[in-house]
Design goal:
CATH class of the largest domain: Mainly Beta
Order of helices and strands: EEEEEEEEHEEEH
Number of strands: 11
CATH architecture of the largest domain: Sandwich
Radius of gyration: 23 Å
Strand content: 25-35%
Structural class: alpha+beta
Number of domains: 2
């Protein structure tokens, strides 16, 4: 059973995907504090943006087979990962996100609840981007995000098993992280089709934060190059012939106009 199969996730508008980044990201770096999700998951390989006391991070890593702390960050905002199946129809790689609303530890903007967050996922394997969006802090027992603060030990994040417990963690903590797979969101959960982990392609992701007034304050982006990546569309021979004929026709029309002009 997929983690998000029963959830009614809100799909955001495509315009959010076009919002410009407000600060330049720091590439292939560590996040503030530890990686508090899961067991034995190391820090590093993140693309991070920091604005004031807020930090947003995204990365991709090997999920299957072990070793798992392999990020394959190319240093330019992209990650390269192999195609192929893990368990069920899941990709061999996961994308991971990190939110920290109090990186300075000074008490300002203590809780993640001071912001609204949007996570955008590009399901299309082509070079273009077609984002579907959710709030990663959606309240549900099925949201297994890990919560803590800057001193929480590696793998020591708290998780909730009720919606009320989840809401309480959002209000009390400044650090929240999770590791997801595109397969969690297909077949009508967020994407209409079935995710194919064996397809070569490019998959983009963004994490964006908005303040209480609805203004965008920070955003970070990554692209996962799966296998050989997406191929640029090349016109078929018939299409190229039509383009050539069109150009030839335009040239002949121009010559006719020139020869018909009075001397």
């Amino acid at each position: 059973m997929k983690l998000f199969r029963i959830l009614g996730l809100a799909v955001g508008c495509a315009a959010l995907a076009q919002a410009p980044a407000l600060a330049a990201p720091v590439l292939n770096t560590t996040t503030t504090g530890n990686v508090i999700m899961g067991t034995g998951i190391g820090n590093g390989g993140w693309n991070v943006v920091r604005v004031g006391n807020l930090e947003l991070g995204l990365r991709a890593k090997v999920r299957w087979p072990a070793p798992q702390n392999v990020f394959n960050n190319n240093g330019d905002g992209t990650y390269s990962h192999a195609v192929g199946n893990g368990p069920a129809n899941a990709a061999r790689w996961n994308f991971e996100w990190s939110i920290n609303s109090n990186i300075n530890g000074d008490g300002a903007n203590l809780a993640a609840s001071n912001f609204t967050f949007i996570l955008g996922m590009d399901y299309d394997a082509g070079l273009g981007t077609v984002f579907s969006t959710i709030n990663p802090l959606f309240s549900s027992p099925a949201n297994t995000s890990s919560f803590g603060n800057n001193t929480t030990v590696q793998g020591g994040g708290a998780e909730a098993n009720t919606a009320a417990g989840f809401d309480a963690l959002v209000l009390a903590n400044n650090l929240v992280q999770n590791s997801w797979n595109l397969d969690f969101f297909d077949a009508g959960v967020l994407f209409a089709g079935i995710f194919n982990p064996n397809t070569n392609g490019n998959y983009s992701f963004f994490l964006q934060a908005f303040n209480a007034n609805g203004a965008s304050v920070a955003r970070t982006d990554i692209t996962v190059i799966a296998g050989s990546g997406a191929m640029a569309t090349v016109p078929e021979p018939a299409s190229l012939a039509l383009v050539s004929l069109a150009l030839l026709g335009a040239g002949l029309a121009s010559r006719r106009k020139t020869s018909a002009a009075p001397r």
